[in-house]
Amino acid sequence: MRILTAIISMIFLSLFLSCEKSNPVSTTDSGINPFSNGYNERNMIVVISDLHLGADLTYAECNTNRAPLKKLLEQIRVAKDVKELVIAGDLFDEWFVPATTDTYQGRDQTDFVERIAIANRDVIDAFNRIIQDGNILVTYVPGNHDLTITAENVKRIFPGINQARDNEQGLGTYSPADMPLLAIEHGHRYNFFCAPDPISNQDIAPGTIMPPGYFFTRIATLHVIQNCRTAGDTIAAVTPNTSGDESQELAFAYWYIWKSLMTALPVENKFSDKIILTNIDGFKSTFSINDFMPYQSNAGGFIYMNVYKGIQDTWNERQTLNHVPVNIPAREAILNAASNSQTDNQAVIQYFLNPGSNKRIVIFGHTHDAKIISSLNYNGLKSIYANSGTWIDHNNVATTTMNFVVITPQNANVSSQTYVKVYNFEGEVVTKMAADSLRY
Questions:
Q1: pLDDT of residue 58
Q2: Which pLDDT does position 39 carry in this prediction?
């Protein structure tokens, strides 16, 4: 979805963003220590996300950034004021794999995760040293790119890691025990194309939860590998169904997103070529691009789907299964799925403006766009949303990569504030990108 976000977000105007951004801070100083609170109390929480560690470094998105990531983890390990390190999703990457590649190489997920551990041994070892020291609690929260990675396989390469998971595979929200007003999650449960889909395709892939964004990403990765400039096929036209049926209107919106993807990220192959290898999460078949793109027999007629048949009609049920507190209308969810602002604003809608939530600070990953936005909650109290950015080598949706968030809780002093700060570590130099604070 990173590639989709970079391109389609320019097509659709972001909606429903009523928050006021805090003033950005740009402070670069090789002497900055983001892991010191100034009073020698181990209470700071560090959040990183979207590492996208892959099993094959010839196309993995995090490669050159692994060395600085290891260095940052070493700094966190010896920081006397850091209490927790939270990995807010997309630690591993099952999605950014070329469509023509067998992700598991004929084996299974356990072997795949072990290959990730071997390919990224320096980073894995750095995490494990922090875990084994026992001074800093390390918590993993699932993201969409590691949606189906099981708790057992995470534990296999990170013995002793804490995992914040919902009962449903692929989702989780973490609130530290002594900071219940903080919520950390990846943010993909609010995204039509990235949230787990345990409803679609059960006839062809029993037990699957893979959403369509998985197949988008497989095709987009093939585009990157091919460096394709000219499409090998022409997109078949689909027009709105003249019946006025709401389901068909949503089906057209879904087709339009597919059209946008295939226009912006062409591949050399014919759309009828069986090129998309699966053997993952219940899928066994090899698919063509046409298998996923909605189609119609005549202009203005019924819009059909093969794979993800009827997905436009099950969004409300998916939200219930995925524990989304405040319903997101299906049309909005489809057309704004690639909008960073749409994801950011879910922190406001699902938490701050939701009377059923007591959260005052929310951290998401997912968009790769590190930032801080402040707003008021339903009680008129200041609340802070932060995004933890990414560690991929080339970030097309923001100006920086190698981002992380640091939260310093308030103390008993009545003038003390809880601070939320976003940093950047490019060039192995700490830059404070934004900061805000509140007291609760």
A1: 96
A2: 87
Burial of 372 (0-12, 13-18, 19+ CB in 10 A): buried
What count of other Cβ atoms lies within 10 Å of the Cβ of residue 176? 20
Q: Measured at the alpha carbon of residue 348, what is the angle toward residues 345 and 350, in degrees to the nearest 5? A: 100
What is the rounded CA–CA span in Å between residue 37 and residue 195? 36
Residue in 343, 324, 315, 427 with CA at minimum distance from that of residue 49: 343
Distance CA 277, CA 172 (A): 28
Is residue 172 a contact partner of residue 161, using CB atoms and an 8 Å limit? no
- Which residue(s) pair with 418 in the sheet? 438
Structure tokens at 131: 């875990």
What's the length of the chain? 440
Share of the chain above pLDDT 90, in %: 90
- Give the position of tokens 């057992």: 152
Domain definitions of the chain by residue range: 19-187+327-438
Hunting for tokens 């507190």 — which residue is that? 325
The helix/strand/coil state of 366 is coil
The yes-or-no verdict on residue 1 having pLDDT over 60 is: no
CATH superfamily for 19-187+327-438 is: Metallo-dependent phosphatases (3.60.21.10)
- The residue-averaged pLDDT of 426-436 equals 96
Residue 184 is inside which H or E element, if any? strand 182-185
Q: For 97-109, what is each residue's pLDDT tens digit?
A: 999 999 999 999 9
Which long-range contacts link 345-349 to residues 24+ away (Cβ below 8 Å)? 345/16, 345/17, 345/18, 345/19, 346/187, 346/190, 347/187, 347/373, 347/385, 348/18, 348/19, 348/375, 348/383, 348/385, 349/16
Judge if pTM exceeds 0.90.
yes
Question: Which of 69, 117, 90, 112 is CA-nearest to residue 281?
Answer: 112
Q: Are 300 and 240 in contact (CB under 8 A)?
A: yes
d(CA 112, CA 171): 20
Which parts of 325-394 are beta strand (E)? 361-364, 371-376, 382-387
The average pLDDT across 296-306 equals: 97
Coil, strand or helix at 321: helix
Do residues 246 and 288 lie in contact, with contact meaning Cβ atoms separated by under 8 Å?
no
